[in-house]
Amino acid sequence: xxxxxxxxxxITDLNIAIGIEWSGRFVLDGVFGRIAGKSFVVLICSDLVxxxxxxxxxxxxxxxxxxxxxxxxxxxVLSQCDYNPQFFISDGKKGLHQAxxxxxxxxxxxxxxxxxxxxxxxxxxxxxxxxxxKMIARFAVNAILAPDEKEYRFYQRTLEQFKKPFFxxxxxxxxxxxxxxxxxxxxxxxxxxFTRYRQPDLVGEDRTTNSHEGSINGFLKERxxxxxxxxxxxxxxxxxxxLIYYYRFHPxxxxxxxxxxxxxxxxxxxxxxNDILNNITKGDKPWSWIKNLISxx
Length: 297
Fold this sequence. Notes:
Layout: H1 2-7, H2 11-18, E1 20-21, E2 25-35, E3 38-47, E4 53-59, H3 64-80, E5 87-90, H4 94-103, E6 109-111, H5 113-123, H6 131-144, H7 149-161, H8 165-168, H9 173-187, H10 190-193, H11 195-198, H12 200-203, H13 216-224, H14 236-249, E7 270-271, H15 274-281, H16 288-295
Parallel strand pairs: 2-5, 5-6
Antiparallel strand pairs: 1-7, 2-3, 3-4
Helix pairs in contact: 3-4, 5-6, 5-9, 6-7, 6-9, 13-14
């Protein structure tokens, strides 16, 4: 596995060779793992439409410095392809948004709706919670999933009404804290959450503003558990590169969007040099692409 990872080209070199054109709707996220007892994070930029990988890099921590380095390199990668992103979808980490503001100041940012929902469910147990828990969670979820800003504001302001003494003083202290945290979560980086309302032309017809965690994120989390069996951190770069390539050339089989099933993520982009891509994907073995790619000039 390590030997194959060493021989594979960098993904940017392949992207340029086959002339990929992305949708421009990009997702940014980090996937955490451990190897030889040490933590690491793979920062990833993927395309929201194809779910293919635009760029990735490995870091010790997910913080501003890591995202700053990532954004600077991503900017170079996109310039090599003569490509400008339409907008980014991400979670709400401050370091990431600071780096995006500095390196992609004119590119709109949209908070990932799935991450926002997850934050609400971290505050409030949505299965075993009592009636008050469920009421607070329901208003918050309805706000996040609202089809327009007016409806979002309705649910948000309804929750804020419960902070008035008549209601608030009758809540238990844990419920008071949950209410305050939930309102804070709805307010946090609200401007980025509203991008899908204020610039709907950038979002696309399917209105998707989730990070598609079930795609590359879920794939890597599952496979990187195997990395614990590798003793040398020096092999990590080669292992991750091989996993990234495996994901790109492995056909979807249970995608939420059925039209993707049977197709590889790399094939779901606009590809200007299909002759090169077809030469890589030929063969009847699941691993044929590795041999073809390594032997390609």
